[in-house]
Write a structure and sequence with these properties.
globular; 9 helices; Growth Hormone, Chain: A
Length: about 280
Amino acid sequence: MTAPQPSASALVARLNPAAKHGRAFGSYGFYKSIGYTLGPLLGGVLVWAGGLRLLFAVLALLGAAVAGWAALAVPVVPPLPKARQTVLDLARRLADPVFLAPTGALAAATAALSVGVGFLPVSGRAAGLGTVTTGAAVSLLAACATLVQPQAGRALDEGRLTTRSGLTAGLAITATGVACATLPDRAGVLASATLIGVGTGLITPLGFAALAASTPAARLGQTMGSAEVGRELGDAGGPLLVAAVASLATLTYGYAALAILLAAGAALALAHRRTTTPTAETET
């Protein structure tokens, strides 16, 4: 599942002008989120109708059909010539804040998303919600992310939102959503799902657009692949952190630990923004 994502991200950046990267990555995230939203729902229907055998058969046929369609429909983009790069050059580029800041935000968003999908149903059951309602809460999270991403990308392209302010706001909203999961009732679960979806939907297109804008076209695949590694670390690290803290205390403390980390990321981004703005004004 991870292998096609760097290629897809690089292709989106190559096929769209820089002025439309926000809108392009917003649409890219929109269609990915549709899969996240409908997959569990339709999968549940298939399992109910014919068991896991039917589910895997449908997934295999769907995968083959999409692969064939992609081979026919996706344009061929030839690789660009690039200068020789050493391991030291790569390490220097990956250590640059221009790469680390959006990748860190993407990793944080993925961590919160994984925690929401994995642990909110547990909190929902503890709050007395049924299986259908807890499933609907997870779908609400994915649906909010689906709706927000195109709007965030369009706002970036039109100059109504900057990458830094958008990522900061997204981290703050996501942290608030994770904090809402500590509330011991169904309102907390639904508010958490909504805010995590909105926050991650805001971060994702802006993070990818920032990476595309700061990367030479010939290195887009490498940059997007490295960013996906960061996202996968967040995908694995978020649930591990919450589970580790929950095993020592309770799930509420696990949510609180992740919320604090996300809020710290938003605070650091805001502090960096305030320190760089006076410098820019002085230079002008």
